[in-house]
Write a structure and sequence with these properties.
Belongs to the TPP enzyme family. Pathway: Lipid metabolism; fatty acid metabolism. Its main location: other. 35% of the residues lie in helices and 19% in strands. It has 580 residues and is α/β, with parallel strands linked by helices. The protein has a six-stranded parallel sheet with strand order 4-3-5-6-8-7, with helices on both faces. A six-stranded parallel sheet has the order 17-16-18-19-21-20, with helices on both faces. Helix 14 links the parallel strand 16 and strand 17. Helix 9 packs parallel to helix 11. It is globular and about 70 Å long. The relative contact order is 0.10.
Length: 580
């Protein structure tokens, strides 16, 4: 059925900038991130005047990441405000990332005056056309009085069905032009469809970020606990039910849960690379998939479902609950399936070593993280290992590189989370766990954190490289062999780089960490400081790696991406990287 709401605002002698700002405010947009310049300075000022919180960033890409993260965290899209030409181009990465993550975000871009098109105007660029590839909706209002309706459609499109990025173009001559209007109408339509679900012998629920977007945590908890079903969260489905829930089988993910389940119920999750496409060897070749999704186009991608349920996740789960309650059905706790899963859910044994490893660092971090903290994570090994070792207990409290695997999103996400936390006064800490390579993409955003006094705790897990690096001694030896551009392996970064000093330079707190004791002390101090951001530069063993996973062979024509590449290790004898 359709639910309709009408919003009205009165406007007389308003500028185009005011129309945009007030139209966004009428859609309950609360946050705007961007970098101002010609011709959109007045739009940012009008947004602030209308009550929208404006956060000035240092890079449009990070601004778009932040705005999209607000959409995920709050359910209402954030706005990324950019200047024309290069400014918009810098935001395209954030738009693509939002689309792949299914997060609502609105990009508002200034452009050259309409009467200067094709004349070589300042930063002239086909912006509306360029954004169509990266968004669900891309348009320029044809006149000032069309701005409210275009903005309304953009906001609705960003949230409707599968969320994503939208783009609204505003030409320079429209920003300060005025129009006299007395009444504008804004209408929202929400579509809800639901169908019933089936049961299984060896069931496995896979909970995706679509369920997080649908705010389905309540019904999902009732389903899992009322029916005794095992569940596995995807990276950003984590926290809808706590990671330490007795029915969470994440620790048995690859070797038992996915491989042996005979029926998999996808709740807002997609069978893409994160779930190994639903194919062998990670899945049983005869598995039956029941797919629940808002998007009809997603049904049957990679694996033909036994049942395709089109509708809102929360509504579908509620109807399923009604169905099973009438039958009084509950999956038995003493089945062989549950026994197999529980046998695999063992914790990793920790060895004390120096320098520390990923597993040691995450183990100690996990002991101190507040249960309700918002956890941001990006990197290669840092993010992959952190997914299993850093607990999430609440829904929509984890942000990472997501479906698109985008590096550089972390600090923008953390700024967005901190801004939302401050605006809502939740008292929740924002902790951003970064690989050293990932931190380099947006590291200068620590100045933004310091400028706005956002008390983000950044933990850089520093292994001197991308995947793996070398120690300072080896780096010095390579430098003596010749020009580093021809000698240094491409995956290496500068050993023991002082990322902590970057934070110190802007007035935040920086800590250099080498031991468990230094880590615990620095993290405790940082979590207690609400006045400024902190950065823990945690130096670990450059050869530290993650445990081996199930693999297949390169000669499988269907699954080349299933091969897990072994880490490169530096061989000081051969003076080159080699496979172990």
């Amino acid at each position: 059925h359709f639910l309709t709401e009408i919003f009205t605002i009165k406007m007389e002698d308003v500028t185009g900038a005011q129309l945009i700002a007030e139209a966004l405010k009428a859609q309950n947009v609360e946050y705007m991130f961007g970098i101002v310049g010609v011709p959109i300075i007045e739009v940012a000022m009008a947004a602030q005047a209308s009550g929208i919180k404006y956060v000035g960033m240092r890079n449009e890409q990070a601004a778009c990441y932040a705005a999209s993260a607000v959409g995920y965290l709050t359910g209402r899209p954030g706005v990324c405000l950019v200047v024309s030409g290069p400014g918009l181009i810098h935001a395209l990465g954030g738009m693509a990332n939002a689309n792949m993550n299914c997060w609502p975000v609105i990009v508002v871009g200034g452009s050259s005056d309409q009467n200067q098109e094709t004349t070589g105007a300042f930063q002239e660029f086909p912006q509306v056309e360029a954004c169509r590839l990266y968004s669900k909706f891309s348009a320029r209002p044809s006149s000032l009085d069309m701005i409210p309706s275009v903005v309304e459609k953009a906001v609705r499109t960003s949230m409707y069905g599968r969320p994503g990025a939208v783009y609204v173009d505003i030409s320079g001559d429209m920003v300060n032009a005025k129009v006299n209007r007395t009444l504008f109408h804004f209408t929202f339509y929400y579509l809800t469809l639901s169908i019933v679900l089936l049961r299984a012998k060896r069931p496995l629920l896979i909970i995706g970020k679509g369920a997080a977007h649908g705010r389905a945590e309540g019904p999902l908890r009732e389903l899992v606990e009322g029916c005794g079903l095992p569940f596995l969260p995807t990276p950003m489905g984590k926290g809808l039910l706590p990671d330490n829930h007795p029915n969470c089988v994440a620790a048995a993910r690859s070797r038992s849960a996915l491989l042996q389940a005979d029926v998999v119920v996808l709740l807002g999750a997609r069978l893409n690379w994160i779930l190994h496409f639903g194919l062998p060897p990670r899945f049983d070749p005869h598995v039956k998939v029941i797919q629940v999704d808002l998007c009809a186009e997603e049904m049957g991608n990679n694996v033909r479902p036994a049942a395709a349920l089109l509708g809102d996740i929360s509504a579908v789960v509620k109807q399923l609950l009604d169905h099973v309650r009438k039958d009084g059905w509950k999956y038995p706790a003493d089945t062989e399936w549950w026994t197999t899963l529980k046998q695999k859910m063992d914790a990793l044994a920790l060895q004390v070593t120096s320098p520390m490893t990923y597993y040691q660092v995450f183990h100690h971090i996990g002991q101190l993280l507040p249960r309700d903290c918002i956890l941001v994570s990006e990197g290669a090994n840092t993010m992959d290992i952190g997914r299993t070792m850093l607990p999430n207990c609440l829904p929509r409290h984890r942000l990472d590189a997501g479906t698109f695997g985008t590096m550089g999103v972390g600090l923008g996400f953390a700024i967005a989370a901190a801004a939302v936390q401050r605006g809502q006064n939740t008292g929740q800490r924002v902790v951003c766990v970064e690989g050293d390579s990932a931190f380099g993409f947006s590291g200068m955003e620590v100045e933004t954190m310091c400028r706005y006094k956002l008390p983000v705790v950044i933990i850089v897990v520093n292994n001197n490289g991308i995947y793996s690096g070398v120690d300072a001694e080896t780096w010095e030896m390579m430098g003596k062999m010749g020009e580093l551009t021809t000698v240094a392996p491409p995956v290496t970064l500068l050993p023991d780089a002082r990322y902590d000093e970057v934070m110190n330079a802007f007035g935040g707190r920086g800590f250099l960490v080498r031991t468990k004791e230094e880590l615990l002390s620095a993290l405790q101090i940082s979590l207690s400081d609400w006045e400024r951001p902190s950065l823990l530069n945690v130096l670990i063993d450059p050869s530290s790696d993650r445990k081996q996973q199930v693999t297949t062979t390169w000669n499988d024509p269907l699954l080349p991406s299933q091969v897990v590449l072994k880490p490169l290790l530096w061989d000081p004898q051969m003076f080159q990287f080699c496979y172990p």
